[in-house]
Amino acid sequence: MADKAAAQEFDILILGGGSGGYAAALRSVELGFSVGLIEKGKLGGTCLHNGCIPTKALLHSAEIAENAKTASKYGINATFDSIDMTAVNSYKDNIIAGKFRGLQGLIKSKGITVIEGEGKLTSEKTIEVNGETYTGKNIILATGSYSRSLPGLEIGGKVITSDQALKMDTVPKSAVILGGGVIGVEFASVWNSFGVDVTIVEGLPSLVPNEDAAIIKQLERAYKKRGIKFSTGIFFDNVQQNDDGVVVTLADGKTFEADLMLVAVGRGPVTANLGYEEAGLTMDRGFVITNDRLHTGVGNIYAVGDIVPGLQLAHRGFQQGIFVAEEIAGLKPVVVDDVNIPKVTYCEPEIASVGLTEAKAKEKLGAENVEVQEYNLAGNGKTSILGSSGLIKMVREKDGPIVGVHMIGGRIGEQIGEAQLIVNWEAYPEDIASLIHGHPTQNEAIGEAAMALAGKPLHG
């Protein structure tokens, strides 16, 4: 019995094997801790199985469809015939399967104990799984998120979430997408490339409402050009299903008809019935409230990822998982504020941003203390070669560092790396202007924007 009890005791016990949980597990074993990782589904969680990875695979298929349609512009004789969703799904699923195998192998090779089953917090130091009790000197909660709906809006039939949208074996003729945030605009982009007649319904005044105004304007212009329709500023009221599909009604009585409706109104925290409240954790609308060091205020219990209020991004989960492992080890890791976490929306054109928008910078620093620079990608050779357009916008504190970088354009997400270094290392435009950026790349547009902001523009 003693051996069994010892096998169920860990330095760190983690509930949830998604981005936050498995990153915490990997960093914890590096730091010499014994780790138990509890997962009811598949390691990798939402991101790997029905989030980031599968949606990006679909977006790549969509990019190839677009390339086929426009091939003649580049002197290539090709035709676009149709979308084979069975083959698209096979490609997508093979990517997921390969990454899943790799992750399983990595977790096993590090000596992490994976406990399969649904866990429930039963005290400050224990989690019960399948009737067995496991003990952790420290507990990390990483139970992730689910595709949420609106109050009174039932999911079923022709009203689907991204979970069902990722498994469709046919292409609908038409679709209404409820929500113009990241998930909504990404699916709109895919489906438009696949030949679907798409309408986005967003209650707030614009698509991607959390982005800088200049980026929003460019995206909406690009979507109009692509034939993606959208209604903004009027909230959804109800949806009715019939034999032909759905009829979506807005608050002002306007209606839209389509084959189906995708509900893309964000993700909710998976925390219900897991014993969190009973253990004394502070909860708010299902989220676990922590201090800035991700401690819940109860025992040695921490929370990471989508269950902690803020940006719901896989890489935020990774970072927080690593952070908590280092915090437990006494390494005093640096807190990264949500505003300085890089964000990429993989629609076409792509959006990438980090730091303060112009509006937020003026709010924080005062309008007179903010300077901005927009560099139009029309002057960038690589962007022209790709047949794309867009801009890079930098926001700086007057006579101070760059506090925000906001970008839109084909494949521009790949440039977020330098942008996040600029903002997080509080670089001045003069610092960046003196660095050499490779030509011809889209990356050099970051250098051009910095040169202009430093008062010495080269092109434009």
TrEMBL record:
Enzyme Commission code: 1.8.1.4
Catalytic activity: N(6)-[(R)-dihydrolipoyl]-L-lysyl-[protein] + NAD(+) = N(6)-[(R)-lipoyl]-L-lysyl-[protein] + NADH + H(+)
GO molecular function: dihydrolipoyl dehydrogenase (NADH) activity
Cited Gene3D superfamilies: 3.30.390.30, FAD/NAD(P)-binding domain (3.50.50.60)
Cofactor(s), by name: FAD
Other notes: The active site is a redox-active disulfide bond.
Protein name, as recorded: Dihydrolipoyl dehydrogenase
Organism: Arthrobacter jinronghuae
